Amino acid sequence: MNYVFHALKISEELLLCLVAPRVSMEFMLAIQTDTLPQTGLSYFAFRIAFQETLERICLAQQVGNYTAECFGFLTEVPFLRAVPPHVQLDLLAETWCKHASSEKFVANLVDESVIYAACETSARIVEQEPHVIARYLAGGPQQISPKPDSLLAGELRALHLNLASDGDFLMISQFEDMPPTEAAESKRQFGLDDDRFEVMFDVLGRWAMSHSFLQNQCGLMTKEEIVRTALELGVT
Description:
Blueprint: H1 10-19, E1 29-31, E2 34-35, H2 40-63, H3 85-100, E3 105-106, H4 109-128, H5 133-137, H6 150-161, H7 168-171, H8 180-190, H9 194-204, H10 213-216, H11 223-233
Parallel strand pairs: 1-3
Antiparallel strand pairs: 1-2
């Protein structure tokens, strides 16, 4: 599969990752009045979602049906099901980077979608494929070994449910098949702002990876894993 990437130099991106100052453990990704806590649980959700999607990309490439079906963690959000899996990883890394940053970021609807989808995907895997959890976590930047049981799945779902999100990213798909006038009236009744949805539509048109994809993985993946991911996705 030949992707259209910005010119990336793996060595430079990894150098930036390695020399970057240690991030603050303050909670820097704000969802309305709440913040996503920087805990082992949030790391678990992001990493499992990333690893599962990356593994499925590699398998799809091997059998030659990369574009044959929609897959990846973001399929949990109906409106974003058609986003290419490699772009899904890019979006996950972008949101992770905001979450791990020492600067304050206000989450947009794409960030909220990523958080929701990562939590739901990781909870589903805990419930349905607990045997893969240890493999997905092995060798990661954080050494955690939670017990993959119903309690953990519940905690992962609570991670996004406890945030002050209106869930607008889940509502947008219901307006797609409505006549424009009817859709506009429904949005008005729900108090939805079209400007907030713009980033969601922008994502649907993305195919190229962002220039910061590799650096954004810092703290979620190790140096060796970032290099391996770049090779697997054809980032050069």
